[in-house]
Design a protein that fits this description.
Layout (H helix, E strand, L loop, with lengths): L6 E4 L4 E7 L4 H13 L3 E5 L5 H12 L3 E5 L3 E5 L12 E2 L4 H11 L5 E5 L10 H9 L3 E5 L2 E7 L7 E3 L5 H11 L4 E6 L7 H8 L4 E3 L3 E6 L7 E3 L4 H12 L5 E8 L6 H8 L3 E10 L2 E9 L7 E4 L2 H5 L4 H7 L6 E4 L12 H11 L5 E3 L2 E4 L9 E3 L4 H11 L6 E4 L11 H8 E2 L1
Length: about 425
């Protein structure tokens, strides 16, 4: 079955400059939607993510009894179920969103009733075993289909656990914390590498108390959540494409307003700085425990240098690795990526797709099981890019195309709507041609 896909032509740019305000952070929007829908009272969120994934979370919570009222394009009111969901007669459709499926499973496991979670073809291939193990250790009843969705949950009373995650994953951590929120006793999650902490900050914003150490987080249940009003900060993973685009042009000057600068997410700023880009934070404040600031980026006069991303840094930067690899040929010394095997089980096999598309543009690249070596000092030409229906691949190669010789055709461009429907329009706004 071949569906028609949207194509976008990206022409080379002379420079990147201007000022942008980006749509709301996807990770925070997911969590606010879920917690607001589970809390007592009516929450109101502005600059809520416009991506299809967060709409999937809202739709699932609405099917479970929450009331969702959309106010314009990016504001939403959510009236919660006060800790008690109503099972839906039909399956809960998580769309393309692994975040929705993994996190909502923890929320539903201690509830009463039976729940079935489904997703699109891509989501139905993604690993769900990682949440089943800890939830079953708490006494949950989950049935997977050969380790994947469809996933069925028979709600039951759970017991608190102390769990060490084998693979660092913010979604797994969140799933356990949401189950622990509703369970007698203290539930603890330990991780070797600290993952993004949006869930802990959001739970606190909604009135829950948690205890954190360097490598663990504990929640005692049961606790009640209370509605909040919040503006969602701009999405740093979406900003990554513009930050990398600006870093390619020595005359660039780009300002990004009201951007989420959570330290567990801001590793990209360190990597770009290590490549020689100049990054300034002009204004920093705390909103609902999340750091928000205005970021200015300009490129080094003599071009980007070289860097390696491996170990804990690779886990922190997992979403930003495709765009870093896509700009690597334009650096002087190239970029080496290791310890990123997780990229092979995302919306697509991102390592293979990045390598194939770089080669299509005339680049040399070496592919490894857990990463890539992309040498620097290369000249790329325009090409037809196969996004594999993966939003981050479509966007990463739109950035690479800005410095290529000739035009680039992105196939499957509509996939960008999964996380960032406004991407191409905003790219046109700052790319000077």
């Amino acid at each position: 079955m071949h569906t028609a896909t949207e194509e976008r032509l990206i022409r080379p740019a002379r420079n990147v400059s201007g000022s942008l305000r980006l749509p709301g952070d996807k990770s925070i929007s997911h969590r606010y939607a879920m917690l607001g829908a589970f809390a007592e009272g009516t929450s109101r969120f502005t600059n809520f993510s416009t991506g299809a994934d967060c709409a999937s979370t809202l739709a699932c919570m609405e099917a479970l009894g929450a009331k969702v009222n959309r106010l314009g394009n990016d504001a939403v009111e959510v009236t919660g179920v006060a800790g008690c969901v109503t099972p839906s007669n039909s399956p809960l459709d998580c769309g393309n969103s692994g975040s929705t499926m993994r996190m909502i499973s923890g929320l539903l496991a201690p509830q009463q009733g039976s729940f079935t979670l489904i997703g699109d073809a891509s989501l139905s291939r993604r690993p769900m075993e990682r949440i089943r193990k800890p939830l079953e250790a708490m006494g949950a009843k989950l049935t997977l289909t050969e380790g994947h969705a469809p996933l069925t949950i028979e709600g039951t009373r759970l017991k608190a656990i102390d769990y060490t995650t084998p693979v660092p994953s913010a979604q797994v951590k969140t799933s356990i914390l949401l189950a622990g929120l509703q369970t007698e006793g203290a539930t603890t999650v330990r991780e070797a590498v600290r993952t993004r902490d949006h869930s802990e900050l959001a739970l606190r914003a909604f009135g829950a108390s948690l205890t954190r150490t360097v490598d663990s987080v504990s929640i005692s249940g049961p606790q009640t959540l209370h509605a909040i009003e919040a503006t969602v900060p701009g999405d740093l993973s979406s900003a990554a494409f513009f930050l990398c685009a600006a870093a390619l042009f020595p005359g660039a000057n780009l300002v990004l307003d009201s951007l989420g600068l959570n330290p567990t997410r801001a590793a990209l700023l360190d990597v770009l700085t290590s490549l020689g880009a100049k990054i300034g934070v002009l204004h920093l404040e705390e909103k609902n425990a999340e750091l928000v600031g205005t970021v200015q980026v300009s490129a080094p006069k003599d071009g980007l240098g070289t860097t390696e991303v491996s170990g804990a840094l690779a886990a922190q930067l997992i979403d930003e690795l495709p765009v870093l690899a896509a700009i690597a040929p334009y650096t002087s010394g190239g970029i080496r990526i290791r310890d990123a095997k997780e990229l092979r089980v995302k919306e697509s096999d991102r390592i293979a797709l990045v390598a194939r598309n770089l080669r299509a543009m005339g680049a040399e690249v070496a592919e490894f099981e857990d990463g890539l070596d992309v040498p620097g000092g290369q000249t790329l030409h325009g090409a037809t890019i196969d996004s594999g229906g993966d939003h981050r691949i479509a966007m990463a190669f739109s950035v690479a195309a800005l410095r290529a010789d000739g035009d680039t055709l992105i196939q499957g461009a509509e996939s960008a709507a999964i996380s960032f429907p406004e991407f191409f329009d905003l790219l046109d706004l700052v790319a000077e041609r």
